[in-house]
Design goal:
This protein is of the alpha+beta class. The protein contains 9 helices and 5 strands, in the order αααααααββαβαββ. The relative contact order is 0.09.
Length: 229
C-alpha cells in the first residue's frame, strides 16, 4: 500500500482516523509527525516527509526537540517549509511545557523537586543557561527566571542583578541553577566561586542562597546535598 497520499489509505490506516478509532497511543512517531505536517504534494505524502525527518535525526525525538525553526529548515527536507517547521516547533514546545508543569512542585522539600523541574525546563537547551528560582518563606516557588544564556562568568551572572531581581520579587531565599549541555554535572571551580560570591552578596539583604543546582541529561548536582554551600 502506497504512503504517497493519506487520502488513498484505508480509513483505519490514516493517521487521523487511526487516532480516532484506536487511540493516540497506537500511532507511531512518523504518523504523529504526519498529522502535524499534513498533506504535502501529489508526489510526496506527509508520512514520507515524516519518515525522512526521523531518518535525518536518527529517530531521536530528544534531538528533534533541540532544533530551532531555522535548524529544521536547514535540514532541507522537501515538504517542510517555514509554516510546517513552525507547526512542528510549536507542538514540541507544548510537550516541553506540559512536562515542566507536571514537574513543578508548589512547595520545595528536596533538591530533587527543583532538579526535576529544571531538567524538564532546560533539557533541550544546547547552550549553558543560568537561572534563578525565588522562594517564599513557606518554600513555595515564587518566580523562575533565566538571567543569562551562553555561559557562566562573574560578568554575565552579575550578583548585583541577581540581588536586584530577588528584591523585586520579595524573595527570602533563592536557588541558583544552570545546565551543563556536555552531560557532566560536576561543578567547575568557576561555578563554586560564583556561588560563594552571590551567597556573600545576598547576606547583606537577608536573602539566603539555599542551593545551586546543576542539571544535565545525565542527572543533577546539588551544592546543598554535597554540603558545599
Amino acid at each position: 500500500m502506497s504512503t504517497k497520499s493519506i487520502k488513498n489509505w484505508a480509513e483505519d490506516d490514516r493517521p487521523r482516523e487511526k487516532m480516532l478509532l484506536k487511540g493516540i497511543e497506537t500511532l507511531s512517531n512518523e504518523e504523529l509527525l504526519a498529522i502535524l505536517i499534513n498533506n504535502v504534494t501529489r508526489d510526496k505524502g506527509a508520512v514520507d516527509v515524516a519518515k525522512e525527518l526521523l531518518t535525518v535525526i536518527d529517530n531521536d525525538l530528544q534531538q528533534l526537540g533541540k532544533l530551532s525553526i531555522k535548524e529544521i529548515l536547514k535540514l532541507k527536507i522537501k515538504g517542510i517549509g517555514e509554516a510546517k517547521a513552525i507547526t512542528i516547533a510549536a507542538a514540541l514546545e507544548l510537550g516541553i511545557r506540559r512536562d515542566v508543569a507536571s514537574k513543578k512542585k508548589d512547595v520545595v522539600l528536596h533538591s530533587k523537586d527543583i532538579a526535576d523541574f529544571l531538567r524538564a525546563k532546560l533539557q533541550y537547551k544546547k547552550h549553558e543557561v543560568f537561572a534563578l528560582i525565588f522562594l517564599t518563606r513557606s518554600n513555595k516557588i515564587n518566580h523562575y527566571e533565566i538571567v543569562s544564556e551562553g555561559g557562566i562568568t562573574g560578568t554575565v551572572a552579575d550578583p548585583r542583578i541577581i540581588i536586584k531581581k530577588a528584591l523585586a520579587h520579595d524573595a527570602v531565599s533563592i536557588i541558583l541553577c544552570h545546565n551543563h549541555p556536555s552531560g557532566s554535572v560536576k561543578p567547575s571551580r568557576q561555578d563554586e566561586e560564583l556561588t560563594n560570591k552571590i551567597k556573600e552578596a545576598a547576606k547583606f539583604f537577608d536573602i539566603k542562597v539555599i542551593d545551586h543546582i546543576i542539571v544535565s541529561e545525565e542527572g543533577y548536582f546539588s551544592f546543598a546535598d554535597e554540603g558545599i554551600i
